[in-house]
Structure of YhfT family protein:
Amino acid sequence: MKTLMIAIIGALAAILSNKGIAVFNDGLRPIMPEYLEGRMNRKELAATSFAMGFGLVIGFGIPFSLTTSIILIHSVFLGTDIIGTFCPDNKKGTIIAGIIGALYGVGLVIGLEGIVKAFEKLPVNFIDSLGEVGTPIVVSFAVFPALATAYQYGAKKGLLNLVLSLIGRQIAIIISPITISSGEISLNPEGMALVVGMIILMIYATREKASEEDIVDLTSVFGERVERIKGNIVVLMIMGGLVAAATSLNYISGDPIALNLASEGQITDAGFAALARGIGFIPLIVSTGIATGVYGPAGMTFVFAIGLFVKNPILSFIIGAAIIGLEIILLGKLGHSMDKYPGIREAGDNIRNAMSKLLEVALLVGGMNAANAIAPGMGFFIVAGLYILNEIAGKPVVSMAVGPISAILVGILANILSLIGLFNIPA
């Protein structure tokens, strides 16, 4: 079922990329009109897509997918972006893109499972230790609203948000569980901290309002491109429904934070994290969608939250499809609202920046913990060294992926040293 679902998603995503309807890579989306309007040829588009996406698939999507049984969606959609743009822009090319996209999805599932099984047969089985990579994320994910507040409004207001979020967290610990009639409701501390932090950030953001003469109606400027997205609403709704259904089955996840929370069984927290991420992506998806006429296969990413909150895959499909449809119908109004409240647009950028910075720190700590569990002492040594070397080299590997990749490399090195008698397997 998992293989079939990922194959269908891979096929449809590759077709959407091939037709220029939707691409996942945020950097590729603004370039698509250059091809669609004849200012760039197909080979140049394909080369650009490959340059932007391949490194992220290998260095970001797959390492996270190896640490749990859940596939990070970047592994799928960044690959299908490349597949779609490499296939010819004609009927035959679209069919080929769909077939290759499906095969890619199958290969991704079987390949990842095969790698995990192969690792389990090694003298030093480090798969269980890799779970340590996500432990700091599970605990610290609720900090990012305070970080976003600090990015946007300064360290003092960020600190105030952090303190109030911490108070909310501790109150949740004290009063939980709450008894209502004959039942109990347990409050998750991190979830409560996240809610408090997001409320404070939104209060700050909505206090900024642009004057009428400063508001530019993007929908009227890019009317044809908005209509192009609306003309593809049905296929985009199907895509959104599939993503929500696959998420509800714990086959895929939209980001590393939700992935690690879901793998720990903290589904509600994962849902809140995905919801907050969706809020952060509203400005980016709305602005790039209106300006380019190209949407994202997962829309504003709320479909991942739907899949986590609604665990029935059929119901998730229906609601996920409806959410994407609603996003597209309201695209123009959302664009106008963001122009009216520039603080909200800026908050979206800062939420994404805060999440990235939090992940970078948490995954470095998690990678060091995992590596040290695999090879005590040597693990810290290697991860710290590789992280600094990556910084010196100009970050050829995305910073937040260094921790997980280094932990995997430590596991492989431990096995090589064990085979030649230079490593003792930890008890």
Summary: The chain has two domains: 2-125+212-340, 127-209+343-419. The longest helix spans residues 342-374.
